[in-house]
Each structure stands twice: as structure tokens, then as C-alpha cells.
Amino acid sequence: MADSWVDAAERIGADLHLELTGPGGRRAALIRALREAVRGGRLPPGTRLPPYRSLAADLGVARNTVADAYAELVAEGWLTARQGSGTRVAVGASSTLSGQRPSAESPGPAGHPPERAPLRARGPRHDLRQGTPDASSFPRAAWLASYRRALQQAPNEVFGPGDPAGRRELREALTGYLARARGVRTEPGRIVICSGFAHALRLLFTPGGGVLRGPLAVEAYGLAFHRGLLASAGVRTTALPLDADGARVERLARERAVLLTPAHQFPTGGPLHASRRSAVIDWARARDGVILEDDYDGEFRYDRKPVGAVQGLDPERVIYVGSVSKSLSPALRLGWMVLPERYVDGVLAAKGEREAWASVLDQLSLADLIASGAYDRHVRRMRQRYRGRRDRLVEALVARAPHVGITGVAAGLHAVLRLPPGSERSALEAAASRGVALDGLAAFRHPESDMAPQDGLVVGYATPSEHAYGAALDALCRILPADTRLPDTERGIFAG
Ligand SMILES: Cc1ncc(COP(=O)(O)O)c(C=O)c1O
């Protein structure tokens, strides 16, 4: 039987494109080229290299030149050579995807590590970055069952061009779900399906005349990615300071729109106080303004009564946006906008004549998942699991770092560890050196905010899989600064 392509590749080794340039002869050039291919990620760990003879023939060099180059890289730790399994890229050899050009002289993993690659690219040992649910808990069986039912029951027109508003089945299911779970008041005709919050921003602020215009007030701490997206659409953002009751909406000035995370301020973690919720609605009514409500993790509230959506207070003054990115997976790219009547046509026009973003079969599957009750069951199960993780995080800190304050624990998939002023950077460096990936608060601060910078670590406790969580917690406790208490005045802005 003929070899499969994979078998053949395994037997003869990877096909390599290498350019032998630079000083020092062919051997030195080959060593440099191989090192760069490993470090740049073109040759991932475990890749089998071609036998000396075939690489020598490809490159037009002597067989010994290749043998010497391999031997040198084995000695440096970039490659491994084992009888019977050929020469392979070493596991642990740096494979950054950062696009940085490393210097050819920098030593390999056997010596000191080359320039530090961003943890995100390297795949950290302990992943405590906020923003992701536990990917190993995606409800595969329930999704598959819903997908199968959706496919079996779908009328033929489903396989034609999609309606940009989204499938009616999903908009109906969401109308009921959002009313029940989040206190959102709407009807299917006011819902537009999108691929998530980021897409909603793009639809609302299309360059050259979208539904909304800047300047847009945003919370002084928020997702830089969203601010960047707005900036690239030409939207200026102004920074609303925060205090223990959430965004200080009384500071709204000339803006006609404000972006808030009222259920769970991102990333500091408190809910917007009831008095501020009604104040911002009053502001919108008085100024003909609009509130953009980012309800990114509203389903996950642990200790108190659920905090409903602000949208329920006045559906004509709030654009409510949610997605499955925290409840199921950010990879699905499925979300929804609940719109005041006056924005529906504009958003549909921004979407275009046909659905170009959200797969219709995914929409139907989600509709089935919600209608069958499986979505609620999944959310409840995950809420319990994340609450358990949150409790373990709090217990670990109480036992091992009682001086570190923790906030934002009543809800969501992340918490904030408060650090003394000036200590965030060194804590992040300590984390990186131990393979713990997480973000510092500084990464979320609006560059023009007039608030005093706050030091802290944002810990995404949902991100690791269940079996990896204990080790991640242990590693986290080891990198926290030694006992230094926060001055009382520094406790100000954090609630919950
Ligand atoms: C503050 C905030 N808003 C919204 C989202 C969801 O974004 P999307 O729906 O585009 O995946 C996230 C997810 O990480 C988030 O952190």
C-alpha cells in the first residue's frame, strides 16, 4: 500500500526552506537558519528534520556540513538526536510566534533563554489570563445533539442566503431567555444577531456614519482591545472614573453615548450601584443619549441576588449586547444586540444584505440549546464549577497570602488581587518567570484617565482546565509579593 502523505513526511523528515546567508561559511549559516526556524515557530517541537543526505542535496552542501550543524544544535539544546528516531526539534525549544527577530548569537534553551517571548504566544504553563471560560468544559454532547436536531429539522431555505437580523428561531429563544435570566425587555424584531461584542461595536460605529458617533464615554478601566477597535473606527473615547459604586456617571458631559459593564465592572469587578443605574438612565433621557450595555458575563453571579440588565429600566435608552463567549466559547463567535426601535434599521444596514458573520447552523443550534433547557443546565453547572474555583482561590489566598486583598469575587470568571502601589510590574515579572500568565490592571487603564493608577493582578480563574487549576493556584501564590499592606486610602475604588 502506498504511504500516506503523513507517513512519508514522518519517514523522510520535514521539507525545509532554509536560506544560507550571512558571514562565517555554510556551516555557520545553516546553524543560524535552523536556529531561527525553531525560534520563529516554523519548526515546532517534535518536528523531525530531514536526514543529512537529503538536506545536504537540497542545499547543495556537503553531508558533513549538515551533520556538524545538527550536532552543534543538539549540543545547544535546540535539537535532540536519538537512535532510530532521527533528529528532532527539542521539546521546550523556543518557538515564539512573536515575529521578533532574535539575534543569531543568542544562546538556546540549553543555556540562558533567548529574548523573552510574550507568554501568550509561548503557551504558558499556568494560564490565569482573564477572558476565557474553561475550554475543556464546552458541552460537546449537548451542542452535538442540538446541532443534529437543528440540521434535521431545518427547512431548505436555511441553506440559502441568511437574513442579517439572524434566524427568527434564535431571536425568539433569546427573547424568552434574556427576559428570564437577565431582566431584558424585548421582542424578536429588536434583536440583531452578531458575532459578539466586538462585532457589535463595529456595527454601531461604522466609519463615516454609523448608528452612533463619538465621543463615547467608557469606563476608566476596560478592555484595551475595545478601545483600539473604536479608535480605528475614528471614535474618540473619554474616560469615566470609577469608585466603589462603579462608573461615576455624574461625570458624563458632552458625550451622547456611554459604554458600561453594569452587572460586573470589567475588570475591577463591582456592580453599578442602583442609584447610578437610575442616574444614567435619567442622563440618557435628558440628553437624548444612549447607554451601550456590555453584559459579558451576567449569567455568572455567585453570592447575591442576580443583578439584572440596566436595559430593563428603559429599553429605548439602552443597547444591550451579550454573547456566548463566556457561557459557551469565544470561538463560536455568536452574540446578540437588543436594540431600541430607532436603531434597528441602521444596524441592519450596517450588517449588509445577507448574513456574513454568524453561521446559520450555529444560530439554529443555539436556539435549540436554549429551547431544550440544555443551555440553562450548562450555565448552572458552570456557575457551580466557577464558584468552586473562586472559593479555592479565596481560600488559598487566606491561607498563603492573607495580606493580598481580593475583590470582584461576587461574580464573573475573574477576580482582582490588589497590590501595593508600584508593585504590579515586579509581580508580573515574577509571574512570567514561573510560567504564570495573567494581566496587570495597568493593561486595562484608559490612557487619558485622570484616576490615580491602581496596582493589581487580574486572575482569570475559569481559564485552566479542572485538573490544571490546583497547580496554577499554587504557582500564583508563590509569585505574590511578600507581606506589604495596602494603605487604607488605596482601597477606594474596588467593591464586591
Ligand atoms: C469586557 C468584555 N466585553 C465583552 C466580551 C465578549 O467579547 P466577544 O463577545 O466579542 O467575544 C469580553 C470577553 O472576553 C469582555 O471581557
Which hetero ligands occur in this complex?
pyridoxal-5'-phosphate
State the strand order across the main sheet: 4-12-11-10-9-5-6
> What's the number of domains?
3
CATH architecture of the largest domain: 3-Layer(aba) Sandwich
Strand content: 5-15%
The CATH superfamily of the largest domain turns out to be Type I PLP-dependent aspartate aminotransferase-like (Major domain)
- The level of helicity is 25-40%
Q: What class, by secondary structure content?
A: alpha/beta
Largest sheet: 7 strands, mixed
Quote the distance from N terminus to C terminus: 65 Å
Q: What is the 3D form? A: globular
- Alpha carbon gyration radius: 26 Å
The beta-strand count equals 17
Unreliable spans: 1-9, 95-121
Q: Which CATH class of the largest domain applies here?
A: Alpha Beta
What is the fold-level CATH name, i.e. the topology of the largest domain? Aspartate Aminotransferase, domain 2
Mean pLDDT: 87
Helix tally equals: 15
Quaternary arrangement of the chains shown? Answer: single chain
